[in-house]
């Protein structure tokens, strides 16, 4: 059983991106620019947005935050997108999800210029991925692919189960694995016979947002387990249910810990697995920087 160390992979990719940024600065006199548009002040989103800004700054990416109040109208969000679409210093636009309930995410995403769509959420970019000619890929599934590649895990020919069908992670993940010749079953929390499907799957990607949803008895011995879940545990009873004793000291000290969608006891059956924290998480924000640089390079090429 081996840990797939996301932090290590993220650091290696950050070094590569750093060289690209330096090259763009020296040879083209261009600094890649990212704008993050956030509506409201959901604490989890604020924490993601902070870590995005921090890494962008550290890497020498121009990072701008547009913060709109939680009751902002859809038209205001669209206006911010339009401003970023026509700003020559901005190469990448991210609208932080989830948006407040009164805003239709598609109504917003449709307005992002596809060439500045750093999440690859625009239907044009998602369509290209579906047709196996994607240019830009959503950050989390791209991070998963980079972990698999780093450790030489080739999905070709594997039975892969993706649990969770969000447009952020599950759906593009399933398509990307299929494009790499895995046989993919796209499941979700209400899939009938989920245990039977997982027990036949050599690769499982869990992205349901439910702590410990995939338990040890659901997992095929020798499987590769990729855990995308980030669940905050702050109650003692939940800790006992979902977390190993080795995290208890941290839980007591901070009052909360994060845990994934795969129960920790399942990892004992895996040949390789990503831990939470320290697995897929560090890759997501790193791939955002990668995509920002990629979009910048493409725009220079197409100019
Ligand atoms: N919210 C959680 N993950 C993401 C992401 O990858 N992109 C955006 N835009 N919002 C998110």
Please identify which CATH superfamily of the largest domain we are dealing with. Answer: NAD(P)-binding Rossmann-like Domain
Name the ligand types: guanine
Low-pLDDT segments: none
Topology, number of strands = 11
CATH fold-level topology of the largest domain? Rossmann fold
Give me the side-by-side strand order of the main sheet. Answer: 1-11-8-7-5-6
CATH first level of the largest domain: Alpha Beta
Which labels suit this protein?
303 residues, binds guanine, single chain, six-stranded parallel beta sheet, Rossmann fold, 2 domains, alpha/beta, three-stranded parallel beta sheet
What does this structure look like?
- There is one protein chain.
- Helix content is 43%, strand content 15%.
- With 303 residues, the chain is α/β, with parallel strands linked by helices.
- The chain folds into 2 domains: 28-116, Leucine Dehydrogenase, chain A, domain 1 (Rossmann fold); 139-281, NAD(P)-binding Rossmann-like Domain (Rossmann fold), CATH 3.40.50.720.
- The protein is globular.
- The mean pLDDT is 97.
- Guanine (GUN) binds next to β4 and α6.
